[in-house]
Design goal:
The chain has 314 residues and is an alpha/beta fold. It has one domain: Purple Acid Phosphatase, chain A, domain 2 (4-Layer Sandwich), CATH 3.60.21. 28% of the residues lie in helices and 22% in strands. It has a seven-stranded mixed sheet, with helices on one face. A six-stranded mixed sheet has the order 4-3-2-11-12-13, with helices on one face. Helix 7 links the parallel strand 7 and strand 8. Helix 2 packs parallel to helix 3. It is globular and about 45 Å long.
């Protein structure tokens, strides 16, 4: 019975969901040719969290589709060069709800670079099928635009909901949760995840390469890495310690997961948490990020607050 259920969900992901191109050419390191001094503009979306279900508190799940339509129309009108989705496309039962979101993202006139969120693993038996449907070139990846590197971390890689049973990641999860318990921290909840040792090594190699070649870097993740009590990635401290060693190249970190949004600094690195689209009946939440030679500006719409990151902080 379990095998039949597994095949059923994979079949839905492969057949019912229409294919459209999201993350470019499907390689772990995507490079787009842009003049290094050109202005870069991209859309940013967090926590659409659609499902065909009634509201719960301030979360209006069905209304996310109308908000997403409005968001896509605006991003197309503004002619952004690409769009980054920070995860939680759906709230639950991904095989049954994901199609409604992907069919709308297909209407973008630019490339969408997706991350998964914790809710996106609902009723998923095979993570690789999920990444394939989101056209992610890997479970974590990077891409280049001009003199900028965009690193897409997967903070769901080591998590209780992400099919880690009987894999090497299960032991890593146990160690992370034990460390959180010993340190009496509050981020060990079942909806939080972390990155593996392998992903941490990959991240450091990406940062070394960027710093060596004087490339500016932005980091993206579903779970915040700093400043949100109880909602950060399981091994947040290890990640931000690594990022701080490469502060010459890391210009900022942008995350989702915490629907209220947030902003803060850790050792001179700015951390932005983008407000979740699913919240409220009718007020939208998304933004357009513009990278200028001297600053990075997030212009928010609706609940999304506008932020500015100065590039010459020293």
């Amino acid at each position: 019975m379990k095998l039949i259920k597994r095949v059923f969900y994979i079949t839905i992901l492969q057949i019912i969901i229409p294919y459209c191109s999201f993350a470019g050419n499907g390689t772990p390191d995507i490079t787009e040719t842009v003049n290094k001094d050109s202005i870069i503009r991209f859309g940013i979306i967090a926590d659409i969290q659609y499902c065909n279900c009634d509201r719960a508190g301030s979360r209006y799940y069905r209304n996310s589709l109308t908000k997403l339509d409005e968001c896509i129309d605006k991003l197309n009108e503004e002619k952004v060069q690409f769009t980054i989705n920070l995860g939680d496309l759906v709230d639950r039962d991904t095989p049954c709800n994901l199609d409604s979101v992907l069919s709308r993202l297909c209407k973008l006139n630019n490339t969408a670079y997706n991350l998964t969120g914790n809710h996106d693993y609902g009723n998923i038996q095979d993570n690789e099928q999920l990444y394939k449907r989101l056209n992610m070139p890997g479970q974590y990846y990077s891409f280049r635009r001009g003199n900028w590197c965009f690193i897409m971390l997967n903070t769901n890689e080591v998590a209780p909901y992400a099919n880690v049973e009987n894999t090497e990641k299960e032991a890593e999860l146990t160690d992370m949760l034990q460390k959180i318990k010993e340190e009496k921290r509050s981020n060990g909840a079942g909806y939080n995840g972390g990155i593996s040792k392998k992903q941490m090594q990959w991240l450091e190699q990406e940062l070394k390469k960027s710093q060596r070649n004087s490339i500016n870097t932005l980091i993206f993740s579903h779970h915040p890495l700093y400043g949100i009590n109880g909602l950060t990635a399981l091994n947040d401290l290890e990640i931000i310690d690594l990022l701080s060693k490469y502060s010459a190249t890391v210009k900022g970190v942008i995350s989702g997961h915490h629907h209220a949004g947030a902003f803060g600094f850790y050792k001179d690195i700015p951390f932005i948490t983008v407000e979740g689209m699913v919240e409220t009946e009718a007020i939208n939440a998304y933004g357009i990020v513009t990278i200028y030679p001297d600053k990075v500006e997030l212009k928010g719409t609706g609940r999304t607050k506008s932020r500015t990151i100065l590039l010459n902080r020293n």
